[in-house]
What we know:
Elements: E1 6-12, E2 19-25, E3 28-32, E4 34-37, H1 49-54, E5 59-63, H2 64-69, H3 73-79, H4 82-86, E6 91-95, H5 98-103, E7 106-110, E8 115-118, E9 125-128, H6 130-140, E10 144-146, H7 158-178, E11 186-191, H8 197-208, E12 214-217, H9 226-236, E13 246-248, H10 254-262, E14 267-270, H11 272-278, E15 281-284, E16 287-290, H12 310-314, H13 317-325, H14 329-355, H15 359-371
Parallel strand pairs: 4-14, 5-6, 6-10, 10-11, 11-12, 12-13, 13-14
Antiparallel strand pairs: 1-2, 2-3, 7-8, 8-9, 15-16
Amino acid sequence: MTIPVTYELKHICRQSGARLGVLKTPHGSFETPVFMPVGTQATVKTMTPEELKKIGTNIILSNTYHLWMRPGGTVMREAGGLHAFMNWNRSILTDSGGFQVFSLAKLNNIKEEGVVFQSHIDGSRHMLTPEKSIEIQQVLGSDIMMAMDECTPWPVDKAYAKQSLERTTRWLERCVNVWDGAHDQALFGIVQGGTYEDLRVQSAREVTSFDLPGYGIGGLSVGEPAELMYAMLEAIMPWMPADRPRYLMGVGTPDYLVECSIRGIDMFDCVYPTRVARNGTALTSTGRVVIRNASYRHDFGQLDPACECYTCRHYTRAYLHHLIRCNEILGARLLSWHNLSFLLNLMASIRNAIRNNELLSFRDAFIEQYYGNPGSLESDF
Length: 381
């Protein structure tokens, strides 16, 4: 069987235990830990593929559910897959669509066969099954496909969390049966189990028993305290193969990126940087700047003096404030450009700190500068 996606462990930080690696896909190789901008509907909101490349993006995430609903499989086949459709020649990961079916669409029924739901677009009825999810992702032609899972909310009853993770394992087996491994696409399974350590370990053992190119970790950063998420990661890491990438799904705030890298995560994604940009918030080296606030109306300084991105080199806080207050699209574009650059640069700094065996020291300095008071730290998503 051809293995289309491989992971090579390059270095372990002696100070923190964090991993530096290289992920190889049919559309390129790049170092990890890595942050993946989210292009839900075949576009990272407000950004062109060329701009994403300029800021160092090597892999993006797109969503199976949204692309299935619109434009649909026929258009994607005619386009020749997602890479050609969106003019992106670097790596793509597609999620299974399951999270959106559970959280966005109008649910009718969850059963062993799959999930019956109504489209959020036109109310039409569909069923998403593990087989259907893989078939759609094969049409999309992503480098990495995610197996269909059930993402439970927080809090969730332990009995239901156990039932859900076991169904996720059975669904994974069905996904594997559809995926033949010979195509230029990898399949990642997903660890679930809520915030129960024994269930997380059970799921990790079951999911990693399938010899897959990589593994995702789902159902975290859904409202639980940060310390609880960290505990779940620490509980399952002994069961995660050292020679396979570990992808923590839906996580992208600066504190989580640093802390979860320390705990052995290799891949992250989140809509956070572009979502808060559209709402008028910038991520800077000294913390969040809510640029729509009136205090920036006469501020002709650089958005972030420590940043060299296009936005920071060319535009003042006063101008960005004006654009956001006027609801100009350019404001959302420039803040998205900056926020994505900020997180990608943060990941580069994390990788350098791992390489130099100083990630814990980097963490302490970064958190103090960004959040001010580490003792009161909590995620801002």
